[in-house]
Amino acid sequence: MSDTSTRPPRFAERILGLVCPDLGGLSPLGDFAEGFADIAEHRGRASACFWYAGQIFKSIPGFLSTRFYWSIVMFRNYFIISIRTLIRDRAASLINLAGLAVGIASFLLILTYVRFETGYDRFHNNADRIFRLISVNKNREGVTAGDPLAAALKAEIPGIKRCVQIMPPWGKPVLQSGDKQFFQEGFFVDSGFLSTFSFPVISGDPATAMDGPAKIVLTKSIAEKYFGREDPIGKTMVFKDTAKPRTLTVTAVLEDVPSDSHLRFDYLISLDTPRSEKDLAWMFGSFNIENFPTYVELEPAASPASVEAAISAWLSRLQAQGGKNRPVCKAIRLQALPDIHLTSNFSNDYAETGDPRSVRLFMFIAVLVLLIACVNHVNLATARSGIRAREIGIRKVNGAFRSQVFHQFLGESFTVMILAGLLALGILALVLPWFDAVMGLPLHLSLMGKGGVLPWLAATVFLAGLGAGLYPAAVLSAFSPVRMFRGPSTSKPGKSLLRNILVVSQFTASVALVAATLVVLDQMHYIRSARLGYDREHVIVITASETETSEKLPVIKTELEGRPEVVKASLTSGLPTDIRQNWSGWETIKGDGTTVKCDFTCDYVDENFLDVFDVRLAMGRNFRAGDQPAVMLNETAVRDFGWTDLTGKKVKFGDTEYRVIGIVSDFHFASLHKKIAPLALIYEQGNKIAVRVHAGDLVKTLGVLRSVFEKNSHGQPFDYFFLDDAFNALYRKEIRSGKLFGAFSALAVLIACLGLFGLTSFNIARRVREIGIRKVLGASLGRLVLLLNKDFLRLVLIANALAWPLAYWAMNKWLEAFAYRIPVRPRILLLASCLSLAIALIVTAGQTVKAAAANPTESLRYE
Amino acid sequence: MISNKEDEMRLLTRPEELVLIAVWKLRQNAYSVTIRDFLNRITGKGWSFGSVYDPLNRLEKKELLESYDSGPTKVRGGRAKRMYRLTAAGLRELEDVKSLQLAVWNEVPELAPEFQKA
């Protein structure tokens, strides 16, 4: 017999080794191997294998019983006990569970939000290799570049695989097919767009869809909106913006743009379309007409830093050469695609950007709320330890190790956490739609997969269970049985110190949150009531997006001004809420005779602008017919020029010299986040009509506006908005943050108060005999209430003292984002403290008064 | 706590007795496999390894047996054998067992005749 045939198979030995415990070093594996060899020799290998397998199966029951049986029995016991404890002490368990569930739910909610906000644009296959070019100028950064840059970079810089240009259209274009026409949003994109980005294509060839002029790609829902169930490919549509109407052919259909894309569009039009038009030739070919956001896709091996360095080397080479057509920007940097959503703060950005600070802030708040809930758990568990003391004593006397008791109580924490986690899931499902409505987000509850909440729930429950369970488990398992049977435990100062510290930190956090909410509200109030330098009430804005309509605007304007409902109408391209056209390269001569270059934010306005928006003139006069070319500047613009009067003052842009007719008082033409910048109001016709109307019947007024507009426009939909709505839109993020902030600080206070309630009722229950005796000996109701509340009030006061500097510091940080802001007023902090004190008092007072008013015979009857 | 006295008074179980006898009989070559073979042969029944380990363990705990490791052997896949031999107490116990058996049989002179008839 060869050696291998008398050896049992290796894997079988492995299994037997696993299930057959080492019986006091009997080396059973060797015995079985010998038995195997013996059988193999006499009856053949097959029956030996059979015997061996039989041995394995025979070993399994024993293995199972020693391994699991006893732990299952103990586990069942622990589980029953923990459920019984929960039920026996209903109020405390409910407080604990509710607090934890709300804490976990809000944590998960914020987590879902944060994951959405930080997960933008990651669905693109090459997301980590796509970058957006940011041109850095003297004092601002822009997301747009000149037309030749893309081709030049592709040719000159190694490591760049593709350059993609896009161009946001001007105004609000109309897309028409047959008798259907709607405002739709989209981009002009060049031919590489669909290959670089991974927007899923339903039909059509992405590689060629954007080649050549007059091509359009639709998203699925837009294709259905215009063409129903028909195949849109090959159909024609008319695109009307401020240039000539264009007829385009549909070449492909895409899936709807995912909500986590920074590019949002209904359609894409080939950039070759405007490129091939004579009227627009001025836009192309110049480095300094920056209309084109440009993306680069790098080769897999190229590092962004080296590409950036190569670009700056190329740029300085080009600028050293001189020449008329060269980029004026100081540098070009790369912005990673996934960073666009959260790290962009550019005045001319077309993407909807998020606010990284509020993401961080909310994350912080969510953790805080969760911590407060966990602290409740710790406090209640340790406070009630006296009740469990006898159970622990019995266990220990019967031979339980400390580690077993420790595990039991840790397990109890987990039981509570898991229950709370399930509750939290329910709460989350209820709250998420509300959250979406407030935040304007498309989040929904999904358990697994992308955005799935279940793994996070599990992690949260596990970490919270561990975090909140370790300390009580350690404390409870350390009890010595002797002490427990000696009598009801007296309060131990060492342990209540920790409890006090926890209560203080809970209240510090809640008070700070309340203070923060109040500061946010205060700043919002300041923004709404701030003197902005213009009047945003009673102004209705009508947009003209087509050339034909634009040509008719003066007619509409005159006609509107003849109506009794209208005070005055102005043709303007920007609105005082939000003027953002930034032109760099103006030149002028200062008061001391030197020439300076400067940047102005520019707006096309007419002579009625000042009246319609109630903007005041600081110097000079308003425009008059025949003034062109002329501008009015704002005070900030001329501050450095040293001008004493306006005679002969001119500013030059390109080849045109504008006479400076007047100086307007500064007004806030951007949100209060930004300082007022130099502004030039240019006397040219804009494409919007801003109408100041008389207060009164708005519906009738709108009807008048509509009829006048539609009489003169060529079927363009009547599109209007109110100026104060546009104003509110500027602060949408802050208003959202304010609401959320309010909600979460309310939650934090609520949970902290739940904890306080639980602790108070526990303390009163423990001191019920003391109260009875004090009463019998003549203590008054007032003294007793004071006695019972004293401790907690002291803690809440300490918490307030800690919360003040914290809130002050944090809110100053938050306010830094506003160029115009309120100080953090002590009044606000005081108000927050009073609020928290009042709430704490309400929570404790009811119980303490009840306890103090109780008849002492009740509490002392059994003594 | 169970007192030592009670422990000493306790009689061996039948398998323990048999294993003790087997170890005595096998001398230098007493280990689980040979003991099992011996028991199989004598009793004519199939003993599993488990049913041998158990009495061996208990006897060792009662210090009637002591064990030592042999060197690794090829047939056992390079594992060592755990060899057993009687301790002095074990030997005494064995003698007790024998005398006990004899004493018991002496008390019962002969098997009852009616049994033999039946």
What is the mean pLDDT of chain B?
Answer: 79
Greatest chain-chain contact: A-B, 24 and 21 residues
Number of domains of chain A: 4
Low-confidence runs of chain B (pLDDT<50, min 5 residues)?
1-7
Number of strands of chain A: 25
Strand content of chain A: 15-25%
Query: Helix/strand-derived class of chain A?
Result: alpha+beta
The main pleated sheet of chain A reads as: 14 strands, mixed
Report helical residue fraction of chain B.
55-70%
Secondary-structure element string of chain B: HHHHEEHH
| Shape annotation of chain A | globular
Instruction: Give the CATH superfamily of chain B.
Output: Winged helix-like DNA-binding domain superfamily/Winged helix DNA-binding domain
Report the CATH C-level class of chain B.
Mainly Alpha
Which spans of chain A of ≥5 residues are poorly predicted at pLDDT below 50? none
Structural class of chain B: alpha+beta
Number of helices of chain A: 26
Radius of gyration of chain B: 17 Å
CATH topology title of chain B: Arc Repressor Mutant, subunit A
Describe this structure in a few short sentences.
The complex is a heterodimer of chains A (863) and B (118). Chain A has 863 residues and is an alpha+beta fold.
Question: Your description of this structure?
Answer:
The complex is a heterodimer of chains A (863) and B (118). Chain A is α+β, with helices and mostly antiparallel strands and 863 residues long. Chain A has four domains: 69 residues, no CATH class; 192 residues, no CATH class; 301 residues, no CATH class; 192 residues, no CATH class. Chain A contains 26 helices and 25 strands. In chain A, strands 1, 2, 3, 4, 5, 6, 7, 8, 9, 10, 11, 12, 13 and 14 form a 14-stranded mixed β-sheet that branches. A six-stranded mixed barrel of chain A has the order 17-18-23-20-22-21. In chain A, 38% of the residues are buried. The mean pLDDT of chain A is 84. Helix content of chain B is 58%, strand content 13%. With 118 residues, chain B is α+β, with helices and mostly antiparallel strands. Chain B has a two-stranded antiparallel ribbon. The longest helix of chain B is centred in the C-terminal third of the chain and has 20 residues. Chain B has one domain: Orthogonal Bundle (Arc Repressor Mutant, subunit A), CATH 1.10.10.10. The N terminus of chain B is likely disordered. In chain B, a hairpin with a 7-residue loop joins strand 1 and strand 2. Classes of the chains: A alpha+beta (863), B alpha+beta (118).
